[in-house]
Amino acid sequence: MTVQEHDDVREWLESVAAPPSRLDIDAAVAAGRARVRSQRRLRTTVAVAVLSAVAVVGLPAAAGVWPHDGVPSPGSSAPSTSPTPAGCTMTWLTPPDGLRHEGPTKWPPIRVTGMDPTGRYVVGVVAEGGASNVPAVLWYDGVARVLPEVAWDSTVLVHSDGTVLAMRTDGNDRRSAWIYRGGSTNALPVPIGYRQVSEVSGINRVGDVVGIVERSDPTRTSDVVVWRAGARSRPEVLRGPSDHSGNAGIADDGTVVATSGGVVFRWLPDGSGKPLPLPARTVRGSVVAVRGHWATGVAEGIRESTASGVQQAITVAARWDLRSGAVDVIPNPDNGSVEMPMPVHNPVLRGLNAAGDVTLGPPYNALLRGGRVIRLPAPPKVPGTMSPVAVDDTGTIVAGTFVDDSRTAFPPQQLPVTWRCP
């Protein structure tokens, strides 16, 4: 990528004029995608777009104050926004000045990993190309700060009260779960008889935390653990299927969902549990997200081609109502079919809110809200890939990452963004 192209991307991110505007940090905004060429062409395109209401504009800097300690993050500047006449709008989340570095892109790559149900908190990690412990960034009403004290792993979640959950890995490759709130960081205790916390993967409205722990015995089997709000010093290991993999989630009423050997298992608040049903013609599944009384996941099956008689693997996006245990299929937004092809190791389904709305990553790049398919746009004139990971409970704010594919360096430039979808 040329220096000129770097300048084009940076100009879109930082150097556009800001019209008078009232800050709505929840706004996020949309556009098309293309390739960045010369700076002159970009300026011409933006000028024409302003006249047609498809413009790159700036919002004034957030005057946010941190609710727990009253200290705003230093040096935060205005996000850049790009609206379209209809659909969603996309906003770049400005990183804190403490992460600035020399170089053509000015900022390190930052990957968004979560957002709280209100849409006011967004959290992400610096994507340093394979590094296990990296700085984490927390935005509150658009004001960014680097989380102090410890380096974080790639798993970082945030609650609506500002509590941040994260993983870190020590020098012996042993993983541990941590909670950050109001300036203090504390480790979640490992249950007796267990070697480590393999993953912390969910927090519900009341603050119950769920994760996966690995046994100390030679089997190294994994079990599901819950740290209840108000009693986190006494972790509760759930009895039932073991050897869990992937995510575990916890609903607002305390219902827990996890995956073991292709079985999606539900524990009710009273501790009883049983497998959840799978969609028709599927034989195994995995849970991806839990929110409110909903869970989403991926189910796999086999269908036989009527033309050749050859069996073909299929993937289906599933959604469970945890109150009844009923399952339905999330249709493919491109053609309405029950099958939803997904890239390897990328379940596509990420964001889920209390209403059951979901976000879909590439190649679909959509918010599914109330039966509608709402496409999430990329920034203008910048080729890249989008990765939406969270949606707020109103279904109007989506958080995620835009990966700038115009760069050839590794790791690629990853830009934290939000979308606002009316």
Explain what you see:
By secondary structure, the protein is mainly beta. It contains 2 helices and 30 strands. It has a 6-stranded antiparallel β-sheet, with helices on one face. It has a 4-stranded antiparallel β-sheet with strand order 4-5-6-7, with no helix packed on it. It is globular, with a radius of gyration of 22 Å. The N terminus is likely disordered.
Comma- or semicolon-separated keywords:
422 residues; mainly beta; 4-stranded antiparallel beta sheet
The biggest sheet, with number of strands, parallel, antiparallel or mixed sense and barrel status, is: 6 strands, antiparallel
Q: Uncertain segments of ≥5 residues (pLDDT<50)? A: 1-85
Q: Strand-residue fraction?
A: 35-45%
Total beta-strand segments:
30
Report, as a whole number of angstroms, the end-to-end distance.
36 Å
Shape: globular
* Contiguous helical run count: 2
Mean pLDDT: 76
> Given the helix and strand composition, which structural class is it?
mainly beta
Please give the order of strands in the largest beta sheet: 1-2-3-30-29-28
What is the percent of helical residues?
A: under 10%
- Estimated radius of gyration: 22 Å
Care to give the gist of this entry?
The chain has 422 residues and is mainly beta.
Q: What is the strand and helix layout of this fold?
A:
Blueprint: H1 3-14, H2 39-51, E1 57-58, E2 80-82, E3 89-92, E4 110-115, E5 121-126, E6 136-140, E7 143-146, E8 156-158, E9 164-169, E10 175-181, E11 184-187, E12 194-203, E13 209-215, E14 222-227, E15 236-237, E16 244-250, E17 256-260, E18 263-267, E19 273-275, E20 282-291, E21 294-304, E22 311-321, E23 327-330, E24 349-352, E25 358-360, E26 366-369, E27 372-375, E28 384-391, E29 397-404, E30 413-420
